[in-house]
Amino acid sequence: MQRLKKKWMQGFLRCKSGASALEFGLAIPVFVLMMAGVIEVAMVLFVSVLTEGGLREASRYGITGQTPASGTIEDQLVAIVQEHTHGLVQLSTSNVTFKVYDDYTHINAAEPFEDANSNGVFDAGESFTDWNGNGTWDTDTGTAGTGGAGEIVLYEIDYEWEFMTPIFKVFGGDDGKLDLTASIAVRNEPWDPTGGAT
Questions:
Q1: Is 134 domain-assigned?
Q2: Does some domain include residue 39?
Q3: Which among 37, 89, 109, 143 has most CB atoms closer than 10 A?
């Protein structure tokens, strides 16, 4: 009986049938997770490219100084971005801005000031270079709008991407969404204010 038990145990330990199924069962969750991760990254890159392309197309329309048949120029620019993102970016919850600057170096830059007390912060009374001529020190000299002929316009969109796989939401913000930004700066064409580009 002891010999039979020992022989059975040795046979059991040498038996390989079912090993493939066990290995597959252990490997499949890792494989599925990796594939989901690849798809998530691919979607983020795809949406980023679409959004940047949409902004580029919007800027190509905006630099010409055309006036849309209906609505505002801003509405037309947002519609162009919406068309090029194929509904993947919810523009109703996104922040789309158009800011006008007088120089490329001034984009998203604070006006330079003389830091009299060396605290690294602009304080009332300190002298500064008034880039935009509004009489106050600004952290960003851009003014809202699509600009006039020859002016520089920054087209920017801040939007959120919601992960398709719940497990990846840990890589997002507090709401589990990924905050993304796209922008492009262009100089408007020197159009004639009475009738489009010259």
A1: no
A2: yes
A3: 89
Number of domains in the chain: 1
Q: For position 50, what pLDDT does the model report? A: 96
Helix (H) or strand (E) run with residue 158 in it: strand 152-162
Among candidate residues 190, 183, 192, 172, the one with its CA nearest the CA of residue 59: 183
- Cβ–Cβ < 8 Å for 43, 49: no
pTM summary value: 0.76
Owner of token pair 């039979």: 4
Q: Which segments in the chain show pLDDT lower than 70? A: 1-19, 193-198
| Cβ–Cβ under 8 Å, residues 177 and 93 | no
Residue of 97, 85, 74, 78 lying closest to 48 (CA atoms):
85
Q: Residue 58 has what pLDDT?
A: 95
Helix H or strand E encompassing 41: helix 19-62
In the structure encoding, which two tokens stand for residue 11, read together? 């046979």
Written as one letter, the residue type at 69 is: A
Helix (H, G, I), strand (E, B) or coil at 45: helix
Residue 154 lies in domain:
19-107+142-187
Asked if residues 191 and 149 have their Cβ atoms less than 8 Å apart, the reply is: yes
194 lies in a domain? no
What is the length of the chain?
A: 198
- Measuring CA to CA, how many Å separate 2 from each of 5, 11, 15, 152? 5, 14, 20, 92
25 is a domain residue: yes
Contact assessment for residue 94 and residue 56, using Cβ atoms and an 8 Å cutoff: no
Please identify which residue in the block is written with the tokens 């008034």.
Answer: 130
